[in-house]
Amino acid sequence: MRIPVQTKQNNLSNYEEMAANFDWKEVESVFTWSKTGKVNEAYEAIDRHVHEGKGDQLALLYSDANREERYTYRQMMEKSNQFGSVLRRIGITKGDRVFIFLPRTPEFYFSFLGIVKIGAIAGPLFEAFMEDAVRDRLDNSEAIALVTNKELLKRVQTDQLPHLKHIILVDGPDEEREGYYNFQEEMDKSPTTLDIEWMDREDPMLIHYTSGSTGKPKGVIHVHNAMIQHYQTGKWVLDLQEGDTYWCTADPGWVTGTSYGIFAPWLNGVTNVVRGGRFSPDDWYQTISKNKVTVWYSAPTSFRMLMAAGDELVSKYDLSSVRHILSVGEPLNPEVVRWGLKVYQKRIHDNWWMTETGGILIANYPQMEIKPGSMGKPFPGIQAAILDDEGNELPPYQMGNLAIKTPWPSMMRSIWKNPEKYREYFSFTGWYISGDTAYRDEDGYFWFQGRIDDVINTSGERVGPFEVESKLVEHPAVAEAGVIGKPDPVRGQIIKAFIALRDGYKPSDELKEEIRLFVRHGLAAHAAPREIEFKDKLPKTRSGKIMRRVLKAWELGLPTGDLSTMED
Ligand code: 6R9
């Protein structure tokens, strides 16, 4: 099935022609730094518009249950300048890691832009992270400053973080304490102008931690040069145009919430909607209708939850402002695309990319036919291929490793303090290996098949099984644990843990609940196993590795395959 184009929209009028002729260099001339050679992505996203006479245009429309605020580009420029000054006064300089552990609120965005403006490296954290997850990230990155609030500070083990010298609290501190600062007081003391730190294109700007199948989460480093891709994909994939009101539902703790919740919309000069608080179908439809959202970027898990909330709910709201809908994070089920067509009378445009890629690489464009279930075609300037395990390109319809020709503007430039991990992605010369499997059809559309490793994708969140297993075995009752993703109609996958108990512990529902809460409170709610099954013994290799492949086969009732490496 193919869904034809509904309207002709942006200036990527002819995909085939653009894909054949596009040169990233053409994009550079939009920006100031094509003349100076020096760049700052936060400046280009915000200040540039003010200098081009668009300072009074709305940049941020923020709301949550208690607050409703709007900020123009000029105000965003001034607030982020002030925060940049705060950091400079404290002694933060270029290259320092400054983390933000806050709910999605305007302070998050002022801080983020301020950090980038002074050339420091911004580290956004999910508000949902608990103690261990926060500690691992602050520790590995050797973060020197943290912007947070009193409630979330309780989850920061400052005594175990010798590098962390400065804590800026948006609602505190209650009394004077060395190294603690009051966000608002410091902002009030700061000028609204700032000497921007002019950076080289290749200077680091952002660190996002993401999960692999082994080891602790890794710190993916992005550089200022990523802006070329943020800007151009914003134009051609998100279809951002003058006058748009855009809503990306992703949290900035996730790469989608920075590349497409901060940079792409502001580089393109549109109004960016941020809605705080938790997901609810009513709340989301209200957010669209109240703000007259024109472009809406979300994730399959959310669309599936909206679908579960029913067609009738949709008819209660005026969603007619919406022109363009997009999805990323996991496979977008054809059923959801068809449902979107029925209830929103709009196509939902799937696109593919990763934390490591920094920006969209494969997409369904507004002016292209959609084949439901396909991720779309490579962005102009991007060469995608399917490789076999020796690095040879495979013909259409053969499944293999989804790979991208290196480099591209927003590609990660390193893994923090882990060059070996970084190299693993580039084991075939000239290619980035994504870890996803896919095939290409004869029209050049790419179709996602799965992950090569054991990484779990639950409601669009990437969870490393190792991280969850490590936490599980910290529980006194748990001797061994193996964690897999189990297919789930709404969440894509749920986390299922197989657990062997220590001597003296008996399986019970209470114990399951206790273990679940242990992970929930130690790591994060989304990392806690929804299902737990007790086993006398877990399948292991002779070298002692838990064989998740066998656990998966048990779960799905499939053959267990080659067991030659399994211990007796
Ligand atoms: C942006 C983001 C990356 C992994 C990726 C793949 C899965 C993302 C997808 C998709 C099927 C899509 N994924 N988009 N799978 N169709 N359109 O999601 O980054 O959190 O790093 O996850 O997510 O497996 O490798 P990240």
From TrEMBL:
Q: Where is the AMP-dependent synthetase/ligase domain?
A: 52-416
* Biological processes, Gene Ontology terms: acetyl-CoA biosynthetic process
Q: Supply the Pfam families for this chain.
A: AMP-binding, AMP-binding_C
Main EC class the enzyme belongs to: ligase
Where is it found, in Gene Ontology cellular component terms?
cytosol
Q: Is Iron-sulfur among the key words of this record?
A: no
What UniProt keywords are attached to this protein's entry?
A: Acetylation, ATP-binding, Ligase, Nucleotide-binding
Please name the SUPFAM superfamilies in this protein's record. Acetyl-CoA synthetase-like
Q: What is its EC number?
A: 6.2.1.1
An example Gene Ontology molecular-function term: ATP binding
Keyword Flavoprotein in record: no
- The highest taxon in the source lineage is Bacteria
- Span of the secretion signal? none
Do you know which InterPro entries this protein is assigned to?
A: AMP-bd_C, AMP-bd_C_sf, AMP-binding_CS, AMP-dep_synth/lig_dom, ANL_N_sf
Q: Record's family?
A: Belongs to the ATP-dependent AMP-binding enzyme family.
Q: What is this protein called?
A: acetate--CoA ligase
Which lineage?
A: Bacteria, Bacillati, Bacillota, Bacilli, Bacillales
